[in-house]
Write a structure and sequence with these properties.
By secondary structure, the chain is α+β, with helices and mostly antiparallel strands. 22% of the residues lie in helices and 45% in strands. Strands 1, 2, 3, 4, 5, 6, 7, 8, 9, 10 and 11 form an eleven-stranded antiparallel sheet that branches.
Length: 246
């Protein structure tokens, strides 16, 4: 009798588990995820308002030792205007590299549509899903349609609820310059006062005749334009993108 009960209980558990697995939601088509992701990007651009951000840039050598640092206050004026003031800097030639990155980052974006994460510029394929920093996320492969240095081959993570982009990892299709080889980029994004912004970048490159270098930029503090620093909002531990090329 005990054996029969055990077998019956196991059978009931097995059937219940299988029924639950069959009724669980399947992954949506890649095209649906991409459509909603593109729509989320458009909505986010419409929500961006003028703000200031304090951002630090750090250059590390192949031994992970800091070679240079720049801290800058950047004013963002939508749709495409950025101004910056360097608060502090150090590091000799490495400092110049970081200053060049900051200058390049704040230039007006040319041909923005050619760099967007859209089906005009990329082919996407759903690879699966996972939990990323507490968010259920779809993982998509990114394959550029053209060989251009501003397009990245790699993967992106899309929030399954909001369809905002959480992370991008990969390498430019073309090296940004003859000096740089094997450039790898990781960018993270987060919500800041109702805006979805890139807030952390980690880039690793092999520089000819110099070896491996790492550049990181991290957003430290946000505030509305013309707001005093004492009232600005701080994000001391945020690990969540900046210049694409060292």
């Amino acid at each position: 009798m005990g054996l029969r009960f055990t077998c019956a209980a196991f059978l009931a558990w097995f059937l219940t588990t299988m029924a639950g697995a069959q009724s669980s939601p399947s992954l949506p088509d890649t095209s649906i995820i991409v459509q909603r992701m593109v729509a989320a990007q458009q909505e986010n651009r419409a929500r961006v308002r003028p703000f200031t951000v304090k951002r630090d840039y750090l250059l590390l050598d192949k031994k992970d030792q800091a070679k240079a640092k720049v801290v800058a206050n950047i004013t963002v004026l939508p749709p495409d205007s950025k101004q910056y003031r360097i608060e502090s800097s150090s590091g000799g030639m490495g400092e110049k590299v970081l200053r060049d990155i900051l200058s390049k980052e704040t230039e007006p974006c040319k041909d923005a549509r050619k760099k967007e994460l859209s089906t005009d510029n990329y082919q996407f394929q759903l690879l699966g899903e996972e939990t990323l920093e507490g968010h259920r996320a779809y993982i998509l492969s990114m394959n550029p349609r053209r060989d251009e240095k501003d397009l990245i081959r790699g993967k992106l993570w899309v929030d399954a609820a909001s369809y905002n982009i959480l992370r991008i990892e990969g390498s430019p299709v073309k090296a940004p310059s003859w000096w740089i080889r094997d450039l790898y980029i990781l960018m993270s994004f987060a919500e800041v006062d109702g805006m979805w912004l890139r807030t952390f970048t980690h880039a690793v490159a092999n520089v000819r005749f110099k070896g491996k270098y790492v550049m990181e930029s991290r957003d430290l503090e946000y505030g509305p334009v013309q707001q005093s620093a004492s009232r600005s909002r701080r994000y001391p531990g945020m690990l969540t993108g900046a210049a694409l090329t060292p």
